[in-house]
């Protein structure tokens, strides 16, 4: 899942990851993400990439969160600076999924 208020970031991530057989659920806010996670049991969400520019944050990038963590209270597992390249986001996801 990608939580980002910028549609361009979501579209770029989807384009970069389409060849990796990764299904992406995208939402524009943490509130929307919580609703999707609460309402949907399938497909299983293995990783959440959350924009750091959501209210209350200052860094421009994405951080990874375990699906069971609170989006408002999660510790940053890893940080990916925006703008990112295809190789950077692929490696970022590969690294974070291996840690699960």
Tell me what you see in this structure.
The protein has a 5-stranded mixed beta sheet. It is globular. The protein is α/β, with parallel strands linked by helices. The chain contains 3 helices and 5 strands, in the order βαβαβββα. The protein has one domain: Rossmann fold (3-Layer(aba) Sandwich). Strand 1, helix 1 and strand 2 (26-27) form a beta-alpha-beta unit. Mean pLDDT is 76; it is low at 70-74.
Concise account of the structure shown:
The chain has 100 residues and is of the alpha/beta class. It is built from three helices and five strands, in the order βαβαβββα.
List descriptors.
alpha/beta, 5-stranded mixed β-sheet, 5 strands, Rossmann fold, 100 residues
Q: Any idea what the shape is?
A: globular
User: What class do helices, strands and sheet pairing give?
Assistant: alpha/beta
Q: How would you sum up the major sheet?
A: 5 strands, mixed
Strand content: 15-25%
Number of strands: 5
CATH architecture: 3-Layer(aba) Sandwich
Task: Please report the distance between the alpha carbons of the first and last residues.
Answer: 15 Å
Number of helices, where a helix is a run of at least 4 consecutive DSSP H or I residues: 3
User: According to CATH, what is the class?
Assistant: Alpha Beta
Oligomeric assembly: single chain
Count of all domains? 1
Order of helices and strands: EHEHEEEH
CATH topology: Rossmann fold
Unreliable segments (pLDDT under 50, ≥5 consecutive)? 70-74
Rg, please? 12 Å
- Describe the strand arrangement of the main beta sheet, using strand numbers: 2-1-3-4-5
């Amino acid at each position: 899942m990608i939580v980002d208020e910028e549609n361009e970031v979501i579209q770029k991530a989807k384009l970069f990851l389409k060849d990796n057989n990764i299904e992406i659920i995208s939402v524009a806010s943490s509130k929307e993400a919580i609703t999707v996670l609460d309402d949907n049991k399938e497909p299983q969400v293995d990783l959440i990439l959350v924009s750091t520019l959501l209210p209350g944050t200052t860094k421009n990038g994405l951080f990874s969160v375990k699906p069971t963590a609170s989006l408002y209270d999660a510790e940053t597992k890893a940080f990916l600076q925006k703008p990112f390249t295809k190789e950077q986001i692929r490696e970022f996801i590969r690294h974070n999924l291996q840690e699960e």
